Amino acid sequence: MKKKPHAKNVDLTKVPFDLYSDENIFHDEYDNIFRGPSWSFLGMESQLKVDGAYFTTEVINIPVVVVRSPSGVRAFVNRCIHRGSLLCLEPEGVLTEFSCVYHGWTYGLDGALTGVAFERGVKGQGGMPESFDKSTHHLEELRLTNYKGLIFGTFSKEAPEFSAFLGPEISPRLDRVLYKKPVLIGKATQVMHNNWKLYVENTRDSYHASILHTFFTTFKLNRLTQSGGLMISETGANHISYSRRGKSDNHDGYDKQNLRANLDDFTLSDPSLLNFLDEFNDGISLQILTIFPTTVVHQINNSLAVRQVIPRSESKTDVIWWYYGFEDDSDALSSLRQKQINLVGPAGFISMEDGAVGAFVQINAPHSSRNDAIVCMGGDDYKSSSSRVSEAAIRGFWSQYYDMMPPMN
Amino acid sequence: MIELSQAFATAIARHTAYLDHKKFDLWLDGFHDESSYDVTTKYNLESGFPAGLIHCQTKGQLRDRILSIARVNVYPPQSYRHILSASMTGDRQSEIITPFVCYLIFPNSDTIFFASGEYIDVWVNDADCRLGFRIRERTVVLDSDRIDTALAIPL
After folding, report:
1. What is the pTM of this model?
2. Inter-chain CB proximity A337 and B51 less than 8 Å
3. Domain B6-142 has CATH 3.10.450.50
4. Same-domain check for residues A126 and A275
């Protein structure tokens, strides 16, 4: 696959540290990426079992409510159009209509304004002017895609169709881990003291995974010497990194590097934690899939999850882990998914470090404005490759990022 | 079923202090050979969701976690300070509930409020343990879904 040179002629092998620490950049991202033509993960359809069932979430800092209405799943900005108050206060529940606590304005599950308290005033006095037409008012609605049970939303009419945005390389790999109806089996939020891009770069960074995450390497869950690869969408926006388990791997590369990551004398008293049922029948035991800007879908052995990344400010980010299984999971598979919660999430043996390492970079970012981060492992482009000793997927992220952002000085 | 005696109150306070003082071997010794240890959130528990934060079905798995955070995992230098509230009996047979809060202390930096919740436990008398009691089952139920940076040291 041939890559065209970047339209804005940006050197993708260098990342200015200001991009992680500048408040103005964060505002530009709000306008151009998150309110712009990108898709954000909002939640799982399995959370909306009946009409009126809803949950609240956020896109960047914008409160959003996702609801099952008789006309299908819909999402609105969680904001009364009258004075801008929050409408739904609980994280989830079931309702028959939206009702604002402030002045009692009500909306149908389709977002249409249905009621204005004291619309005609009291005893002929006060009230709304005759010219006020309820039927022309509606909650601000997001465009939705329900992709096999995962709900994505965008504020933009210009955003490409979701599956087209994924690209032909990535969509079959997302279908792979959604081959049956996903069902939520647990949630947790990891609060990170770093810019959102440091986390989403981290998930595209196949170079670090087996070095920082010693547990991964010690137990041979993911070594760069294992067979696998990187696949990157033509736009650079989305990627997968994958590896296969245990086919006579040669681990010499690690021994020669004398990495901290190679604690061969450390053994588990209960190695069943690392069991793997080949549920997708392809031998792939690890697949990290990223969707620009802020969605990650992982398979780590039999742990499946969507990670919803919510930027809070230029230096704060929430990562919500949506652990899922499938409706007809066997007892053995359910129990393995529950056990492998120990590997992932805020307390995960192989993911707890990502919360800390982002903060280690963030601390230095404001003082590094004369420096750039170096991202040239594996070249200067973002091609798919069989080698994961590469930062190509990070460069792909930046290519998409610069495409959406205004020109930078 | 054990009594909520002064001896028990001292035992659970001492056991929790082992974590705060990073005496992980002594903390682990407070668990029965046949014991389980889980950390989850109120939301997951009330939703019937099995996937919480930590799930150790055996003492061996708990030992693995202690060894891993001591030798393998990377996290900022830190320690805990737990404050326990009075234990009470729960609805289930032999269940003892102890509310707690936990602060997280970063040396030369901030002390932050890290977690609040309840220990939902089953304890047994055990003269072999210096505490006089051991845990058969512990479910740590956190009030909030949010974990700041990482949950490395068990709660």
Report:
1. 0.94
2. yes
3. yes
4. no
